[in-house]
Amino acid sequence: MQGEPAYEAITRSLAVRVRPSFLPGQSDPANRRWVWAYQIEIENLGREMVQLLTRHWIITDAWGRVEEVEGPGVIGEQPVIKPGETYAYGSGCPLSTPSGTMVGTYRMTVIETRETFDIAIPHFSLDLPGGGRVMN
Predict the structure, then answer these.
(1) Whole-Å CA distances, 82 to 79, 87, 105, 110, 115
(2) What is the DSSP letter of 136?
């Protein structure tokens, strides 16, 4: 991940880093549509092999309207992340306001013991370029 510093959260030796970016070419402010991409890295800093089972997002627009998104895996995958490895993917989020925030959790399982637990996706802001970060 390159560019601005990432938002980061570490839970149980799993680091989640997020870098959002505004997509002006997919946005249409005249029709109240602003679109962001975000790149995610999940790095396994621990000694256990884990698998990402589900995601839970809380997306809040500038007016305080909240949308929750839940489902299996990410981008159609339920990756296994070995110790010392990093899994990375990209996705996107449209909003009807020019800014907002996202936060969430991933449900993980330890491959060896089948123990499940949640890890934090850091709270990050979706800001127009030049506006500066609202959070973090």
Answers:
(1) 10, 9, 19, 10, 16
(2) -
Please provide the DSSP assignment of 15-76 as one string: EEEEEEEE-GGG-BGGGTBEEEEEEEEEEE-SSS-EEEEEEEEEEEETT--EEEEEEESBTT
Confidence of residue 82 (pLDDT cuts 50, 70, 90): very high
Q: How far out from the chain centre does Cα 96 lie?
A: 19
User: Span 60-64, mean pLDDT?
Assistant: 96
User: What domains appear along the chain, each with residue ranges and CATH number?
Assistant: 7-125 (2.60.40.1470)
Sheet holding 86-95, edge to edge: 7-11, 14-22, 34-44, 86-95
pTM of the model: 0.91
Taking alpha carbons only, the member of 135, 55, 136, 56 closest to residue 100 is 135
Cβ–Cβ < 8 Å for 27, 11: no
